[in-house]
Amino acid sequence: MITDEADEDLMVRYQAGEVRAFEILLGRHRKPVYNFILRFIGDKETAEDLLQEAFMRVIKGAEAYKRQAKFTTWLYTIARNLCVDQTRRRKHRKHASLDAPMSADEDSGTLLDVVAGNEMASDRKTVNKQLHARLQQAIAGLGDEQREVFLMREFLDMPFKQIADVVGVPENTVKSRMRYALEKLRLELEEYKDFAKAAP
Amino acid sequence: MADQLSPDDDDAVAALYRDGSDDEAPPAWTSLREVIGAARASGFDEEPPAGLDAVLLAAARAHAPRPRQTWWQRLRERLAPVLLHPAMAGAAALVVVVGTAGVLYTRDGAKVVQPPGPSNAASPAPTGGAPPAADPAVEERRRADDDAPAAVNEQAPAAPGAPQAALEETPGPRAPAPTPPEPVVRKPRGVERAPERAPAAGTRTDGLSIGGATPGAGPLAGGAGRSATDDGAPTEGGQGESAEDSAAPPPPPPSPSPQASSAPAPDRQQVAPVEPVATRFAKAQAAARAKRCGEVVALAASVRTDDIAYYRRVFVADPVIAACLPASAL
Hints:
heterodimer; A: mainly alpha; 67% helix; globular; B: mainly alpha; 16 helices
C-alpha cells in the first residue's frame, strides 16, 4: 500500500509524476517540521512561511532527488537552513516577545500573562498553558546550536547521527550540544517535574 | 568548550534516548523528558494551517516532475506539433506524388536503355521491297531512324529491341555533330543514311566495321572515319549498317526502282538490301588480303558506282586494295 511506503519510495513515485505520493509525504512530515520551525523561530507567521518554503524546495528539487539520500535528512536540512537564515536576519529578536499573543486567538493572552508568577496554577488547563509558555520560553532561551539539536532530537525524533549529518558537525558535538540544552531546560522546567509525573 | 563531551556525558545522553535504558540516564534529564512529554501531550505541538496543505499540493501538481521518457517518446513529443500540422499532410502528399512520378520516370528511362524484347530486331529480315514514293528528305530521315537499331545492336547485341528507343532517349550523340550532314554524293539509299545516323552510332559502330581495319582504335575510330571523308560527312553510318549486316543475312542487291514494288513493305525491309560502301570497302580489304582480286574489282566497281568520292578518297587509297586493282581502276 502506498501509505506504508518509505519516504524515499514515495519521493521516487513523486518523481515519476505521482502527486498522491507527495501528498502522503506532506501529511507525514508537515506537523513535525512545522513545530520544529515554530519552536526554532518562535513566530507562527514566519513558521508558516518557512514551512511552505521548505516544502516548495522539496517540490522544486524533486527531480534532482536521488533515491540513496534519506528523505528526512534532506527535508530537515532544508528546514533547518531556512531557520538559521531567518534567525540571522532577525538576530535582535532572539527571545520570544513577552507581550506578543501566544496564538492567533484574541483571548490567548501573552507570554507575560502566563509566566509572570512562579506559583503553580491550580487547575490543569491553566497549568498546561503555563507549561507550554515556559517550555517555549526555555527553548527560545537556548543558543541556536543547542536549540536546533534539541528540537531535532525531541520533536523530530532524529538520531544523533542524522542530526550530525544535517547540522554538519560530528556526532559527539551534537551530543554535547544536546547535553547543555538538557541542563538548561532542566533548570528552567524544574518546577514542573512533579506536575509531569502526575499527568495522566 | 561547550562542544566538549566527557565520556560520562556521552553515555548519559545516549542512555537518555536509548529504548529501555532510562535507568542509565540521569534522573533529572529523565524528569525533564517527562515534562516535555507532558507538554506535548497537552497540546504543545501545533497543527500547521490547513490552507497551507492546499497551497503546497497545488504547487506539487504544478511542478510535478514529468515521467522520464525514452528518447523515442521525447522525439515523438517534440515532433508531434510539426508532424500533425495540416501543412505536413500536403507536403507529404506532394512528396509521394513527386516520388512516384520520379520513380515512374526513372523506370521509363530504364526501359529506354533496356530493350523491351528481342522480337523487334531479332529478325530484321531484309526484303527487297522498295520504299514508297515520298518526299526525299522525309524518306531520308525515316531511313536513318530505321538504321539506328543496327548501330545500337553493335553495342548491346543481346538487346536487339532497344535501339529505337535508345535513339529517342539519347539525342546527345546526334546533336553534337561536328560537321554538317552534307554528303558529297548522296545516293538515294545507303549512303544517304550515313550522315543522319553517324553522330549517334558513330563511336559505337566504328569499333566494329572500321575497327576491323584499325584494330584497337575503339571509339577513336569514329574520328578516323570522319577524317577519312574530309567533307564532313561521317561514314560511320555506313559502318553502322555493317553491324546490321553482320547480324542479318546478306542483303539482296538494292532495288533499282523505289517504286517498283507497290506493296507497303516495312522501312527496314526497304533499306536492308543496301550494302553500304564501307562494308563493301571492308569486304574488299578482306578479299584483297586473301588475294581474291576479282572480288575486289567487283566491289570497287560497285563502290565507285554508289559513291565516287568515297571510292576515290578511301577505297582506292587503301594500299592493300590498290594492289589488287588494275591501274585503270586507280
